[in-house]
Amino acid sequence: MKNLFNKLVLMLMSFVLLPALVFAEEAEANLVTIFEIEVIILAILIVVIFLVFLLWHDAADPSSGLKRFTSAFMQKLTGSTPIEKEESIILSHNYDGIRELDNKLPPWWLYLFYVTIVFGVVYMLHYHVLNTGPSSSEEYVQEVEFAQAQLAASAGMRVTEETVQFLTDAGALSSGKDIYTKNCAACHGQKGEGLVGPNLTDEYWIHGGGIKNVYKVIQNGVVEKGMLAWKSQLSPSQMQDVGSYVLSLKGTNPPNAKAPQGEKFVESDSVKTNPM
Ligand code: HEC
Question: Is 250 exposed, middle or buried (CB count within 10 Å of its CB: 0-12, 13-18, 19+)?
Fold first, then answer.
């Protein structure tokens, strides 16, 4: 009997723990969620083992003190009337010998029901009256923002001529500004007004405007005209940042602006590329 019990416990543990471990690994869950899952599983396990132990002990040794404890416990849970006293709760009707007992609602069920009512009230106050918790749509927006931030972060690592984006977020623009001030201002002016290099704040571009053309010029340079190729000194995402910063200067009309060079660039579906 002891042997059987041990086997049962082992079986239970492997049934409950193995899928949980696999699940935790698959979801790449962080430590907190793994810890939470483990605690819940442990709690379930303890309850299950306790119940199995009670039932097993009950069957094995009916005369034990535990047997009395078990039945008192079950009595508390179910609130059932012992068979000897059923006469006191029997209802008067009698259909072809079928009679009905007026049993109380089982306490385990009743208290669970009360708990759901309390939970419901707390839930409604928390999410709908006091608004201290995020609504489903707010949670959705948060999750989407988080996912987009992650996407942007991973996209930043594989910026190419094709995937480069005109970033408008403050982080990218301020990093772009730093790069510009250090590397570009000497030829294009502190404010992009143009010096040796052309004005970057107007709508006229020698090599085409828009992030793709600008990125290409920054990456490959126009070496024979004095514009360096920056691909060996700046990472793709840095070139994307500084390119975005350059585009953000459009229309700023800085003082001492150099006269427009090249052609007016209008962003369209078919991105215009002038020969370099
Ligand atoms: C040594 C001087 C010099 C530096 C430093 C320099 N540029 Fe240039 N840049 C030029 C010149 C000159 C041109 C014009 C090339 C041409 O006429 O084809 C140019 C052209 C450009 C163009 C194309 C403009 C157009 O009208 O098509 C962009 C965009 C640009 N530079 C961005 C940058 C950025 C960003 C940096 C810093 C990472 C930078 N440049 C650093 C000299 C420089």
Answer: middle
